[in-house]
Amino acid sequence: MKKPISIFILLIIYNTIASAQGKFFTRTGYIRFYSETPVENIEAISNQASSIFDADNGDFVLSVQMVGFEFEKALMQEHFNENYVESEKFPKATFKGKIIDYDPSILTSDEKSEVNVEGELTIHGVSKRLQTTGTVQKTGNNIAAHAEFYLKVADFNIKIPTAVINNIAKSVLVTVNLDLEPYNK
């Protein structure tokens, strides 16, 4: 009689662990934006994005300090922070959303899964609904997440001076790469 009870208890413990994947986080997420025009290309990269992903329900948040973006030219970085995104007034960009129709079983193998994501993106004090596609993949104990999408600069009330209007694309390509580790409280 002891053996069936022991097996039953082990099965309950295993199912609890398997179904409760928990939270994952990073403080070193990669975000890149790229503006391409005939006049010049502008690229900015940050490796300081913070994110928390709940692998039980597909919810996640992402935050990046605007002053953390690095540009090829110091003058571009200065203009970006002082004139365009006004980093002192609006210090960070945030996204709070979820994977649509999330199924936790997509993280039980090492296969990359395409997902649809929706949520609210806030930049420059303006919040907009964002819906895009991306991928998630279990990589050992971590979860890798990736997305690329375009944002219209005007949608976030970012004013581009007339003198440089042709230097900055109306839509910029945003790339997000996250390597999320298990969050152990």
Uncertain runs are 6-20
Question: Which geometry do the CA atoms define?
Answer: elongated
What is the gyration radius calculated from CA atoms?
A: 20 Å
The order of strands across the largest sheet is 1-2-3-5-6-7-8-9
Give the strand content. over 45%
| Count of domains | 1
Per DSSP, the total helix count is: 2
Any idea what the CATH superfamily is called? Lipid/polyisoprenoid-binding, YceI-like
Q: How much helix is in the residues?
A: 10-25%
Per CATH, which architecture? Beta Barrel
> What's the CATH topology label?
Lipocalin
CATH class bucket: Mainly Beta
Describe the largest sheet.
Answer: 8 strands, antiparallel, barrel
What is the ordering of alpha helices and beta strands? HEEEEHEEEEE
Provide a descriptive summary of the structure in words:
- The protein has a single domain, classed as Beta Barrel (Lipocalin), CATH 2.40.128.110.
- The protein has 2 helices and 9 strands; from the N terminus they run αββββαβββββ.
- An 8-stranded antiparallel β-barrel has the order 1-2-3-5-6-7-8-9.
- A hairpin with a 2-residue loop joins strand 7 and strand 8.
- The protein starts with a helix and ends with a strand.
